[in-house]
Structure formats: structure tokens, C-alpha cells
Amino acid sequence: MPFIPRFLADAMLGHIARWLRLLGYDTLYYKSISDWKLLKIAKEEDRILLTRDLGLFRRARKYGIRALFIEDPSVEKVLALISIKYNIALEFNKENTLCPECNTQLKYTTSIAEVSARVDKEIVLKYKEFWICPSCSKIYWQGTHWRTISAILEEARQEKLKILSRIKPLERKVSSEGV
Ligand SMILES: [Zn+2]
Description:
alpha/beta; four-stranded parallel sheet; three-stranded antiparallel sheet; binds zinc ion
């Protein structure tokens, strides 16, 4: 089994938590939580702490907790960075996506009968694929906002390539100097 990272986002990174869930990665997020509790959960559940707080990041590292300090909170850059560091896929997988609201695995369905009672008729007529959250009961479909989501993921992939191209020449330099 490949290692699948699980995350814990601090109170300033709710938007990143939603993105990671969309991409299928188990990510906890609390609007209001103390630093010690974040550290406790990260340690006990072996989660990677994502934080914008340098002090918290340093404390996490001191306690042997894996943590990533997020300097620039732009979604594309953060996703690119997490993808490089923890090998997460920057692709939407319709069979493996979590509820952005509550972090529960969504159930994919093309059955109109399953959703027709709970979403508007126009939506049922217009879309063929739906995702149902068994926990909070929300229903999702790839509506007009989906184009933005796809564009942001594409930008994140480009950003990843840019970062990698900056890292590689440095590594080559080091190894050739070592010979
Ligand atoms: Zn949910």
C-alpha cells in the first residue's frame, strides 16, 4: 500500500482543507482550536500539520510532528508545494473525493432517482453525475464553478513544474561538484 498522507489544516487554511478533500485527501480543519490541541491531534493521528503560524510550525517540529509552513496562501502554490513534498495527485478522481464540508468519502452516482428528490429539477436534467455525502447529506455536481476548479488545478500543476525546474538544476550542480 502506498503511503497516503493525511492532513490537519490550521484555522487560517480552511480553503486549503476544502481543496485537499476535493482531491480525496483526508484533511481535518477546525474554525477555532487551540495550538496545543492541533499539536495533539497531529501527533496522535499521525497527520501532517499545515500552518501559517511559524511559531506553531517550529513547535510541531520540536515534538517530531510532520509539518509544513505555508508562507504564501495562494491555492495554486500551496497545492503545488504539498504535491511535491507529500506526493499528492493534483487530479480530481470522481471515485475518490471527500466532502469539502465534512471530510467524508462521497458516494458517486449517475442515478437520477437517488438525487431527484433533493435537487432542483433543472439540475437533474442538466447534469448526469452527482456526489452524495452520506454524513451531511449534501449533494454535489460539476456546475458552472467546475470550470474554475479545473483551471485552478491546471495552474497548480504548472506551478509544480515551475518549482521542480528550479530545484533540479541546483541538485545537478551539487552532484556534479561532488564527483
Ligand atoms: Zn459532508
